[in-house]
Amino acid sequence: MKSKEEILNNYYTQGADGMPEISADGLLKAMEEYRRQAEEAAFNAAKEYEGGVIGGKELFETFEDYRASLVIPVATPTEPDELAQIQFMADSILELFIPQDKTVEQISFDIRTNGKEYTVSYNKTPQGYWVFGTYTPTE
């Protein structure tokens, strides 16, 4: 295992004044190399065994196999559908349209998103909460 100094020596350059210097990018690369080396040493020192039994079958043959097992594919998030977009927008401004009159049971207002206009409606629950009802495109 290389020492920190040996790794840093690979990234030093000669400054204009003749003194050794290291750039920020070089320092980051040295730190990454040292971190990876320490991680691999820890892996080799404490290999995992099937069933936790020393002498059993190794779960990972090499450090690279172990690192590959850590990569978990993440599905790209899907775009919200039209209803979700409209409801999100309407919910975010609903407070501006709540009437002072407590007897009103339904409200509607117009919004514009993605270059289209819609009329959205909300219904009041018996508990007094406003719930998204419907949306219709307006022409």
What does this protein look like?
This protein is an alpha+beta fold and 139 residues long. It has helices at residues 4-9, 24-45, 63-70, 82-93; strands spanning 13-14, 20-21, 106-113, 116-124, 130-138. The chain has a three-stranded antiparallel beta sheet with strand order 3-4-5, covered by helices on one side. It is elongated and about 75 Å long. The chain starts with a helix and ends with a strand. The mean pLDDT is 87.
Measured on Cα atoms, how large is the radius of gyration? 31 Å
Number of beta-strand segments: 5
- What integer is the average pLDDT? 87
Low-confidence stretches: none
Reported for the largest beta sheet, the result is: 3 strands, antiparallel
Alpha-carbon distance between the termini?
71 Å
Structural class by secondary-structure content = alpha+beta
Helix content: 25-40%
Count the DSSP helices: 4
Strand line-up across the major sheet: 3-4-5
Order of helices and strands: HEEHHHEEE
**Shape label:** elongated
Strand content: 15-25%
Tags for this entry?
two-stranded antiparallel sheet; 35% helix; three-stranded antiparallel sheet; single chain; alpha+beta; 139 residues
Would you spell out the secondary-structure blueprint of this structure?
Layout: H1 4-9, E1 13-14, E2 20-21, H2 24-45, H3 63-70, H4 82-93, E3 106-113, E4 116-124, E5 130-138
Antiparallel strand pairs: 1-2, 3-4, 4-5
What's the quick description here?
This protein is of the alpha+beta class and 139 residues long. 35% of the residues lie in helices and 22% in strands. It starts with a helix and ends with a strand.
